[in-house]
Amino acid sequence: MRARTPFDSVSTNLAKLWFEQVAFPLACRRAGADVAFVPYWGSALWRPCPVVVTVHDLIPVLLPPYRGGVLQRGYAWLVARSARLASAVLTDSEASRRDIVDHLRIPPERVHAVHLAIAACEPGVLAPDNLDRVRARYGLPHEPFLLYLGGFDVRKNILRTLEAYSRVVARCTDAGEQPPALVIAGKLPAADTPFTPDPRPAVQRLGLADHVRFTGWVAEEDKPALYALATGAVFLSEYEGFGLPVLEAMACEAAAQ
Fold first, then answer.
1. 170-207: per-residue pLDDT in tens?
2. Angle subtended by helix axes 6-18 and 70-84, to nearest 10
3. From CA 221, how far away is CA 76, in angstroms rounded?
4. How far is it, in rounded angstroms, from Cα 236 to Cα 164?
5. Residue at 1 is within a domain
6. CB-based contacts of 229: which residues, under 8 Å, 6+ apart?
7. For 39-61, how does the pLDDT look when each residue is reduced to its tens digit (9 = 90+)?
8. Structural domain harbouring 14
């Protein structure tokens, strides 16, 4: 198989831009569409019919590490401008709605928060034999543990999470109590960079090697069991459009009761 080159990425991005700005509106005109729904904020500047666009969050606009280079910033400017032309804007939360109104300067009556939902936690997923299987598969402790399942890019705040957890460990130790373990789930970064910090060096630096466990990649069907087995879920993200892991943890807790 031929290795991908930077030209492949440019070609893919140009094809995406062509679809959003030319092919999609042409298809709407040919179909005689009364309204076009775009489940992403990359809508066209030219629109043959009213457009409803989805803006999940303003991460590329508000967070400097996510703005990228000149091309990425140019694309963010383009889609922000196209969102201002939409007949209606859908977003995931009231927090994102406020950001869109404030930073994209879209009239508030055109921006609507439609909260996200998750699939129900199936009872069979939380059956004792399945919980035992998941515990063994990922090497989860039998003692109480906290679960982090939130990704590793910089806004997810994993390094500060570890610093806060180190204080919990210190306080428990000073009180003569056993601190809960911290289970960090998910595929770890391929490289330790400012954008994707690897938590393992911080674990060593903070003296937490005996308290933190890494599961590696977790199958989607096993996530409800991880939440159910945990004493608590940790989610200290600096910015989210919605924050689905919190809702997932709450749903699994409710199903386990």
1. 999 999 999 999 999 999 999 999 999 999 999 999 99
2. 10
3. 34
4. 10
5. no
6. 131, 134, 135, 140, 145, 147
7. 988 899 999 999 999 999 999 99
8. 6-113
